[in-house]
Amino acid sequence: MVASPRVQVVIVGGSFGGLTTANRLRRLLPRERADITVVSRDDRFYFIPSLPWVTMGKKTLDQISFPIKRSLQARKIDCIIGEVERIDPEAQEVIVEGKSLGYDILVVATGHRSANEAVPGLGPFDGPGHSLMSPREAVEAGDAWTQFLDNPGPMVIGCAPGASCLGPAYEFVLEVDHALKRQKQRSSVPITFLTPEPFLGHFGVGGMGRARQFLEGEFEHRDITYRTSAAISKITDSAVELADSAVLESRYSMVIPPLAGVPAILRSPGLGNPKGFIPTDEGFRHKEFANVYAVGVAVGYPPVDETPVPVNFPKTGHMTVQMGKAAAHNIATDILGGDRTGRPPYVECILDMGDRAVKMLADPVRPPRNRVAMSVGRRWLWVKKVHAPLFTIKMNMGRV
Length: 400
Prior knowledge:
This protein has 400 residues and is α/β, with parallel strands linked by helices.
């Protein structure tokens, strides 16, 4: 009897999507049937939802991360640390820093590129604005936050037109409000929240139950001024400018940028859409290449609705884990046989408000939905504090 050939599975990306898919595949596929290789630009996994805590000085990067190579190799998964230059889906090869890596099945879990250039002055390394979309940016924003406390003044926190990862802006503005009150400095810091959403709590998903009413009430109770359908056009050292010519004084500006596809996908003809995101079916398989899958932020989802100022569809870490598990199941089905899965992802998130937290659920993410739920209390803050390190430990162990 002739043994079945070993399948070469290459996963591009070493964050939520890539590690979830790799570890789940290793559990589903016998080692004699498949070799699994993860290619990652970064040599560490970071629990990205904790970046606001890094900026606020509650956590360090070491506390929310671990080295991925050792973690993967412990489960017989190969790991290459390097920059992917491009992918050739016809030749079935990934070019990593000039070297070709062949594959039978490819999973694109590259995440995103923050398009900070969409707002002149956003920076943070070439302008006065700050962001929370990467570990380096979170640390830089934290250093600037510490300096700001020595000379407080007006703040602007919000999201740029076309942003999709909106939750961190809400979390940050509520955490800042709480921190300033504890330090008796809130009266010296007028806070303005700017969002392209047509209403608070839209989140790029058309709203989530009574989130709008809750957040409007919370902002009003905390004296946080807010503007919806706001299009930030420029950030300077002393102000944030809007497309309608409004100018808001600001000594500390935190703005979440829109996301774009990574350069490697844009350099790979036929693989992604014009923005660099991957079109997939409900099982996260590429619509043109049957041996290519995509998970996480790399997946191209259209906006839920048209809004006066563009707001894009979000992909959270929780949703990415679901995608990774589904893609791994379907890849194993391709190799071993069985039934495919294609359940639409749902979202379950906990928003830190400083003194308490709000837990929100929408199933599925895109309306209409089967279930929407929301709960507020200090217990959810403790759940979030416990969940972050627990998830990171389990990911390090390969058990998501």
